[in-house]
Amino acid sequence: MLTLAVHPEDVPDDLMRDFVGARYMVVMVRVGDDEKPINREQAYPGDNAVKVAGMLCRNPDFWEFLAENEWLDEQSESACVEWLITFLSIDSRKDLKTNSEARDLLNNIRKKFDSWQTN
Q: Which residues does the chain have with pLDDT short of 50?
């Protein structure tokens, strides 16, 4: 349950004039010390890289991209995971949380894949 207290001077007139029972949606974002929203991808690059690696390994188009470049023989998620782990020189995709070199390699292969998709 969320309770919201707003000072009357901070409430827009349209809100004050709306009928009782009107419904609204409220969005919450984490803010930094500068009171601006935090970009989670930039704040937590390792977490984002793990998520990206997982999405790529489940993407049949990525398998096709790897196969066309003769990097992947079998087009499947498990084969893609094995290839990616070898390519990035890591033991597991979760290593992307702490390994910035592997993240850079992942970003490079993702850019190549994105370029391949647009062609």
A: none
